[in-house]
Specification:
371 residues, 2 helices, 2% helix
Length: 371
């Protein structure tokens, strides 16, 4: 057994998992004492490569032990009544200078995104036993046959090696929710609710070319109404389907030498001017952005050294779903993308309304995100 200093926070699922470090939580079946890492052989080669999540064990808010896997896991009480349904999609990748973790969980019909974390330009070996992170915590791990098992404070996550698929179609469906409150703020109605699949472009500076929503007539549906009536806080959730039946058109591409990527986000908005499309974020009087998905739609075509140096370097060929990750480097801390497991069923792309937001800062990858 060795140790990786990954920090408790990147495995914690905020309010949906118990706090890190509970003494009574179940630990993986590993040796009781950690040997001196300086006497161990270097195990880096055994850890390098791509892993996907096959199982996550944790305690929920009520203290009940839960297990989620890529296929739906149903938990019942002693009377046979279903009390929880859940599944997970996630990946963990390591090479000599970069490691990344991204995951999303569906619990009882809603998608939870704990997010991911990526570390670049950090030299590590298994015998060195630690990643250098600001949190300076430790996560125990062990290799058990084909599995990599990590444990942090009662949250146990198991991975197996995998090869990402080259996906040509992608299910992109979910529900939008307009709750009564956002924090302590009462939410307002949405008079003309719509969702759009907005593809981000190279810059995120509030300019006209920051995003594009390809027209519906050019291929798959990219902008749809959420019902035919106004939507009031507390009303029933509304569903949508913006699935992909073909690769991107090309107008939404971000080029990296000979390679190209696409990054799409579901945007919930109020179509204030009634023109049935998401307008330029920077135009005065434009539509009111009310929320955006935490799960993103991504695509990669070919490969190039320029792409391998970018914060989209982990995207597999074809379509995938991704989550935003913290990205540590010698240049500082920013945001990057980590793909979910595209060999498993797609995660629902849910959107929850927040207080009205004007401008591109309503998107989850704005600000410090850089292509």
């Amino acid at each position: 057994m060795r140790r990786l200093a990954l920090g408790c926070a990147w495995l914690a699922l905020t309010a949906h998992l118990a706090g890190c470090g509970d003494d009574d939580d179940v630990k993986p079946d590993v040796d009781a004492a950690l040997p001196d890492a300086s006497t161990e052989p270097d195990a880096s080669a055994a850890l390098l490569g791509n892993w996907h999540v096959v199982e996550l064990d944790f305690r929920d808010d009520g203290g009940t032990r839960q297990t989620v896997r890529p296929t739906e896991t149903v938990q019942t009480n002693d009377a046979g009544v279903v009390i929880n349904r859940g599944r997970i999609s996630g990946t963990f990748s390591l090479d000599p200078e970069v490691w990344s973790l991204g995951q999303a969980i569906v619990l009882n019909g809603r998608t939870i995104v704990p997010g991911g974390m990526t570390n670049v330009q950090v030299t590590w070996t298994a015998s060195d036993t630690q990643f250098m992170l600001p949190l300076n915590n430790v996560v125990d791990y062990m290799l058990q046959g084909i599995r990599l098992i990590m444990n942090t404070g009662g949250v146990t996550i198991r991975f197996e090696r995998y090869t990402p698929a080259n996906v040509s179609t992608m299910t992109l469906a979910g529900t939008a929710e307009l709750p009564l409150m956002f924090g302590t703020t009462a939410l307002t109605p949405i008079s003309k609710p719509r969702v759009a699949l907005a593809f981000l472009l190279r810059h995120l500076e509030g300019r006209a070319d920051d995003f594009i929503v390809p027209p519906n007539t050019a291929g798959d549906t990219n902008d749809v109404a959420l019902g035919t009536t106004a939507w009031n806080p507390g009303d029933a959730n509304r569903s949508f389907d913006l699935s992909r039946s073909a690769p991107p058109l090309g107008v939404e591409r971000i080029d990296y030498g000979n390679a190209a990527t696409s990054v799409g986000v579901i945007v919930l908005y109020d179509d204030k001017n009634g023109n049935n499309k998401l307008d330029n974020f920077a135009v005065a009087g434009a539509d009111e952005i009310r929320g955006s998905s935490q799960v993103l739609l991504t695509y990669r075509l070919l490969d190039d050294p320029e792409l391998r140096l970018s914060r989209l370097r982990f995207l597999p060929s074809g379509w995938s779903q991704s989550v935003v990750s913290l990205w540590f480097s010698s240049a500082g801390v920013g945001n990057g993308l980590v793909p979910l497991d595209n060999t498993a069923a797609a995660i629902p792309v849910d959107v929850t309304a927040v207080t009205p937001t004007a401008g591109v800062n309503g998107l989850p990858v704005s600000g410090s995100f850089s292509f």
